[in-house]
């Protein structure tokens, strides 16, 4: 069978999880890498049309041209994981909000603005803000805006660099100081604790949670997100709050770095998808 990995980072083939999975898959299948980093969407589509079509495309990129390529491949009847629509929904925090609310899953109240400048020029909107608040870029990307603000002056100070950035405001709901990191590959749910990045000088060290210590409610919540977004590969950030578990971020096809067993689970998923595609 023929597998194509769509990527935009030259380090992806050496990633400690991805590289092991690719090596295992290469022993039984043809595995091809498609680096779209320097391509436009149109160029990526044209480049792929010159190749033998793959039986399965793995979308390990959030770049706009990668999403454009994925959409084109799906229109041609090709299978992409995660799909264009699923990946797009994870990139656009407004679409994420709509899917989470439609599925009645715990997600912070979210309000979108075309730009930060327009939010600052809207007295009615600012009057309704509860402080502190979380501000994020509407579209998730490398180096995007994610911050906790305590008052209007901090919001105004962002305008120097972010005035034209599409943004969302999210309610701030205090947690216990920890993020619960959940990584899902098909029915496998891996978990760890990490100090919240909203704390100054927070450590990025993960403290794994054994499978037998993972609360059933967290596992079921993680899998429910996969059903709502129709994707088998994703990451979830969960906070433990006075109102119960709260999802604050969803990432399509994370790297699963440092997650024991992730490579094997990824290979198992790809093999299953190849069989079900036949």
Keywords:
278 residues, alpha+beta, Rossmann fold, D-amino Acid Aminotransferase, Chain A, domain 1, Dna Ligase, domain 1, 3 domains, five-stranded antiparallel β-sheet, 35% helix, globular
CATH class of the largest domain: Alpha Beta
pLDDT < 50 stretches: none
Shape: globular
Strands, count? 13
The helix count comes to: 11
Amino-to-carboxy terminus distance: 10 Å
Classify the helix fraction into a percent range.
Answer: 25-40%
Q: Strands across the major sheet, in which order?
A: 11-10-9-12-13
The structural class is alpha+beta
CATH architecture of the largest domain: 3-Layer(aba) Sandwich
Number of domains: 3
Write down the Rg: 20 Å
Q: Classify the beta-strand content into a percent band.
A: 25-35%
């Amino acid at each position: 069978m023929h597998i194509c990995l769509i990527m935009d980072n030259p380090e992806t083939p050496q990633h400690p999880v991805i590289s092991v999975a690719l090596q295992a898959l290469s022993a039984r299948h043809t595995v091809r890498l498609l680096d779209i980093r320097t391509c436009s969407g149109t160029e990526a589509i044209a480049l792929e049309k010159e190749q033998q079509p793959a039986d399965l495309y793995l979308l390990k990129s959030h770049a706009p041209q990668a999403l454009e390529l994925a959409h084109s491949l799906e229109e041609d009847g090709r299978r992409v994981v995660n799909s264009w629509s699923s990946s797009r929904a994870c990139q656009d925090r407004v679409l994420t909000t709509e899917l989470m609310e439609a599925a009645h899953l715990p997600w912070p109240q979210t309000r979108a603005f075309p730009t930060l400048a327009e939010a600052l020029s809207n007295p009615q909107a600012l009057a309704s803000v509860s402080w502190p608040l979380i501000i994020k870029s509407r579209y998730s990307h490398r180096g995007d805006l994610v911050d906790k603000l305590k008052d209007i002056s901090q919001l105004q100070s962002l305008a120097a660099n972010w005035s034209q950035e599409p943004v969302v405001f999210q309610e701030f709901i205090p947690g216990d100081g920890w993020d619960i990191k959940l990584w899902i590959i098909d029915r496998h749910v891996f978990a760890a604790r990490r100090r919240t990045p909203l704390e100054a000088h927070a450590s990025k060290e993960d403290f794994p949670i054994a499978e037998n210590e993972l609360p059933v409610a967290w596992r079921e919540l993680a899998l429910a997100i996969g059903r709502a977004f129709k994707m088998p590969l994703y990451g979830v950030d969960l906070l433990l709050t006075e109102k119960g578990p709260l999802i604050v971020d969803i990432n399509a096809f994370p790297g699963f770095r440092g997650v024991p067993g992730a490579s094997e689970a990824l290979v198992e998923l790809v093999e299953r998808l190849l069989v079900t595609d036949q």
